[in-house]
Specification:
The complex is a heterodimer of chains A (378) and B (563). Chain A has ten helices and twelve strands. With 378 residues, chain A is α+β, with helices and mostly antiparallel strands. In chain A, a hairpin with a 2-residue loop joins β4 and β5. Chain B is an alpha/beta fold. Chain B folds into three domains: 116 residues, Elongation Factor Tu (Ef-tu), domain 3, CATH 2.40.30; 294 residues, P-loop containing nucleotide triphosphate hydrolases (Rossmann fold, 3-Layer(aba) Sandwich); 80 residues, no CATH class. The chains are: A alpha+beta (378), B alpha/beta (563).
Chain lengths: 378, 563
């Protein structure tokens, strides 16, 4: 019994080139931006109360300190990608990208964080040129499931949980495409995780979930897809997306001016008004606002210490009028109360990090197989 | 959760790149609220179904906080009133020393192996407390005191052959004074030894105790009224009878006009004298002149002139051929030191004068140098009494009230007499029955060993010579030294090095920083500075590790009152 590449060669009838196998995350670190706004999203009001300037939520945060925190679940998804081979198809050469995709949820009970749910999948991204016969999503899926089964049958070193196809349009970097496909897979896993938490009643009024990063999920055109937005929207009633990094220049005020100045001048315990956001690329409507967790002078730059908060608008009222201002205030206050402790020294983004999220991220990373070990499984 | 063998699982082994498990040691993580203590035994599941035993040496608590700054930042940049909703992730990691494996497998334990608390049997196996031959109880072990429902108490037995010979001999105990550890522990152990030897009659053991402080050991045949409930329970658990020492005799230095030079209470002395337990000892010139050198134990004698003078006197060279008393000896010494006196060619007049100054101070002022021994007045010579030492006898020789030189003299003379007895030098004067009664083992206990075997003692010191002889040859001769001192580092290495058993009571941090303690892990060193009354750390070849043990209050009456 050989390795995965041999099995893939056997199945596809192609012969792969020997490639310098390596982890791609360092060289292509900036590939995926969570914040991909291209829309002047602060124009439209996203909360019920209209106010100008910023809003101080210090007293609300202090009041909440005496009560049980609402955020009890913390989710993070993460992936590592590796180039393991190059496969010639026709006159072109395509990379074979392997990935480790982890999604973890930690729960907090009595101030102590412990793992709640965890999945770790090994995936393989291959060029779509391998499945020229598939005419639609369903056929592609069948091909991929079949290929994964064959790969697992013909080798026993590593169990491949999924094989993915990445698109191969000319003049594009195929490695980036492979990584992007693995990233999408991770997002699917996150959605599935949220769904399972809702089904298990772990997410409820008293137990909200913070998801690390944006909640923007790319539009899914296939209405049969289990994760099509309308099917999963209700899962996100008690889920808040918190992004550590964002591009403030993309937030524009009504008059077209950048909102970056307003965001940068936020003081601790202050938040911006929530804006409503909607784009063609992404399903659904969101309320988006910014909260400053820490003083700017104690951090590296003006945007350090500020997090971008997103919440999917679920009910008809929300879609129409935005979130209740009191809810935006409360969520902001809860986040303020999550500001300590910090992971200073462990993570450069410490000023924007929420400690439970950081721990969840650390938990996933602790579960990954070592890079050299993983690369050599193929 | 517990392993198949029954101990509660408390963590798992962590073998790291920077901190691998080795043949000798391993680390494991455990919950930060698991209250382990140094010296606790842990059990690790190992290969081939074996179990590796470890003894906890160090416990560290860590969080994911990178630096103090991180902690400062985590409190809103130094706000002491700030609060957080989440505790930092923290855990304890414990480093343990490997002390054994059930199948003698000593490859390092594996990462992730379960670590559990031990059962009583595990603890005995781990520490070498199982299948002890000639067991004599030497203390009481408490383990897992901080873990709910897991506390284990067990008496600790040691093979007496490794304490009083023939396998190993001599015990040394160190620790600062006033914490009821050194003397109390030795007396506890001697009591246990006496009870055992009187019970099984395998070896004939006798004991000579030097009382160097107050009235500490002057009522050891009287029962104690200070035992509490815990003491009773401990004695019962250890299988010891609550009886004080038996067959005890007390020897007091003869004092002015028939009195004794001692702190003993008059009523106690009276009772002891009447019952024949108490005796007053003297040194006569005719019988004890060979002990003269012991008066010079702390005096440098680089040219060996003092030694020459002593030999001159002992060999009865003129004019000492006609000397038969301390008084006449002093007279002749005086004449030898006089200007133009009879002197002799090898020894200068100045040396005789020096000798005279030292010897006169002792012999003239101390009344135990007396040439008449009247048995009817309970007067004895120590050497004669030691000749008659029998199995299970306990002799207490009181030297507490004497000055340092006299203490050394008496102690030296006791060692000399015991050595002669065991070497058979008295055999000619003894009957066959007396010879048959000579104990197999004679245990000598002396406190303040630093006065006699200091690392700085003159090399020519006759007491040091005697002590080294006992330390090095005593095991085979059957002379066992139980010694105590405040600071072990100050004791001659050849004395401590020959001890098979070492006991450590509470000491100070300067002492433990000495290289004498370099083999002791730092946590244990720090524990030595925190030991409480009734606790000590013991080291013996039969134990696989140092043991922290407890012992009960002594069974005899400790007279600690003011004079």
């Amino acid at each position: 019994m050989g390795n995965v590449i041999k099995a893939l060669e056997q199945e596809t009838g192609k012969t792969c080139f020997d490639t310098y196998r390596r982890c791609l995350d360092h060289e292509r670190a900036s590939l995926i931006e969570y914040d991909e706004f291209s829309h002047q999203f602060m124009k439209e009001q996203g909360e019920t109360e209209r106010f100008s300037g910023v809003r101080d939520i210090r007293q609300i945060a202090i009041d909440w300190q005496a009560r049980q925190p609402a955020f009890r679940l913390f989710m993070d998804g993460s992936r590592r990608t590796y180039k393991i081979a190059d496969m010639p198809i026709g006159s072109q050469v395509f990379p074979i990208i392997a990935g480790q995709v982890g999604v973890a949820v930690c729960k907090r009970e009595n101030r102590v964080l412990s793992p709640c749910r965890f999945t770790l999948h090994v995936v393989l991204a291959v060029p779509d040129k391998l499945d020229t016969e598939g005419k639609n999503e369903k056929q592609h899926r069948a091909f991929l499931v079949n290929l994964a089964q064959k790969l697992n049958l013909n080798q026993s070193r590593v169990k491949i949980d999924a094989v993915l196809l990445y698109p191969t349009r000319a003049n594009e970097n195929f490695e980036d495409k492979g990584i992007a496909r693995i990233q999408e897979y991770m997002i699917e896993q996150e959605k599935e995780m949220v769904q399972s938490l809702v089904q298990a009643h772990l997410i409820n009024d008293r137990s909200w979930l913070i998801k690390d990063g944006s909640l923007e999920y790319n539009r899914i055109s296939d209405q049969n897809d289990p994760f099509v937005f309308n099917r999963i929207r209700s899962n996100y009633k008690r889920v808040v997306g918190v992004s550590k990094s964002f591009n403030p220049e993309l937030a524009k005020l009504k008059n077209g001016r950048s909102a970056a100045g307003v965001i940068a001048k936020l003081q601790p315990f202050e938040r911006t008004p929530a804006a409503m956001y909607r784009t063609e690329r992404v399903d659904g409507k969101f309320a988006v606002w910014y909260v400053r967790l820490r003083e700017a002078r104690k951090t590296r730059g003006p945007f350090d210490g500020i997090v971008k908060v997103e919440k999917i608008l679920v009910s008809a009222d929300e879609l129409e009028y935005g979130l209740e201002t009191s809810e935006v205030d409360n969520i902001s206050a809860w986040l303020m109360n999550e500001r300590n402790p910090v992971c200073y020294g462990k993570d450069d983004r410490w000023a924007n990090h929420l400690y439970p999220v950081y721990l969840t991220e650390t938990f996933i990373k602790s579960k990954y197989r070592g890079n050299i070990h993983f690369i050599n499984l193929f | 959760m517990s392993t198949e063998q029954g101990g509660k699982v408390i963590g798992r082994v962590a073998a790291l790149e920077k901190c691998p498990t080795t043949i000798d040691s391993f680390c494991f993580w455990t919950d930060k609220n698991t209250l382990l203590n140094p010296f606790d035994v842990v059990v690790v599941d190992h290969v081939n179904g074996s179990k590796t035993f470890g003894v906890v040496e160090e416990i560290s608590h860590i969080t994911d906080s990178e630096s103090f700054l991180s902690e400062f930042f985590s409190n809103d940049f130094g706000n002491i009133d700030s609060s957080s909703l989440t505790d930092r992730v923290g855990m304890n990691y414990v480093s343990a020393k490997v002390v054994g494996n059930t199948k003698n497998i000593f490859i390092p334990v594996h990462n992730g192996a379960k670590v559990s608390l031990g059962t009583k049997k595990d603890i005995r196996d781990a520490l070498g407390l199982n299948d002890i031959k000639n067991p004599v109880v030497c203390g009481y072990l408490e383990m897992y005191t901080g873990v709910e429902d897991a506390k284990i108490d067990l008496p600790v037995y040691v093979n007496s052959d490794f304490i009083i010979g023939p396998e190993g001999a001599h015990l040394n105990i160190s620790g600062i004074s006033g914490l009821a550890t050194k003397t109390s522990y030795v007396m506890f152990l001697l009591n246990a030894l006496q009870q055992k030897s009187m019970q099984d009659r395998k070896q004939k053991v006798a004991y000579i105790l030097m009382n160097v402080k107050g009235r500490d050991l002057l009522s050891i045949d009287e029962g104690s009224n200070k035992l509490n409930r815990a003491d009773h329970a401990m004695y019962k658990s250890m299988g010891l009878g609550e009886v004080p020492f038996r067959n005890v005799k007390y020897f007091y230095p003869y004092g002015e006009r028939g009195t004794v030079k001692s702190y003993v209470r008059p009523e106690v002395l009276e009772r002891q004298l009447q019952s024949g337990q108490g005796k007053k000892f003297k040194y006569t010139f005719n019988d004890d002149n060979e002990c003269l050198d012991l008066l010079f134990s702390n005096i440098e004698d680089p040219n060996q002139t003092i030694e020459s003078i002593i030999n001159y006197i002992i060999s009865k060279q003129h004019p000492f051929d006609s000397v038969d008393s301390w008084e006449s000896m002093l007279r002749e010494v005086q004449s030898m030191g006089e200007k133009g006196g009879s002197g002799n060619k090898e020894i200068s007049v100045m040396s005789w004068r020096k000798f005279k100054r030292i010897v006169r101070k002792s012999i003239e002022t101390d009344k135990m140098f007396n040439d008449v021994v009247d048995a009817s007045k309970n007067e004895v010579r120590l050497e004669d009494e030691i000749k008659n030492l029998k199995a299970d006898d306990v002799f207490v020789v009181d030297i507490a009230k004497q000055d340092e030189n006299m203490q050394a003299f008496v102690f030296g003379s006791v060692m000399q007499a015991v050595t002669k007895l065991k070497l058979g030098e008295f055999d000619e004067d003894m009957t066959a029955e007396q010879r048959a009664n000579i104990p197999d083992r004679i245990v000598i206990f002396v406190d303040e060993l630093n006065k006699y075997a200091s690392a700085d003692a003159p090399k020519s010191s006759p007491i040091l010579r005697l002590l080294l002889d006992i330390a090095e040859r005593g095991r085979s001769l059957g002379i066992v030294l139980f010694s105590a001192e405040q600071f072990k580092s100050a004791i001659h290495k050849r004395v401590t090095g020959n001890c098979s058993t070492h006991v450590y009571g509470r000491t100070n941090s300067i002492e433990v920083s000495d290289k004498t303690y370099s083999f002791v892990p730092s946590t244990y060193k720090n524990m030595m500075t925190r030991l409480q009354q009734g606790q000590c750390i013991i080291q013996n070849p039969v134990f696989n590790s140092l043991l922290k043990i407890k012992f009960p209050n002594p069974l005899y009456h400790q007279d600690k009152g003011e004079n």
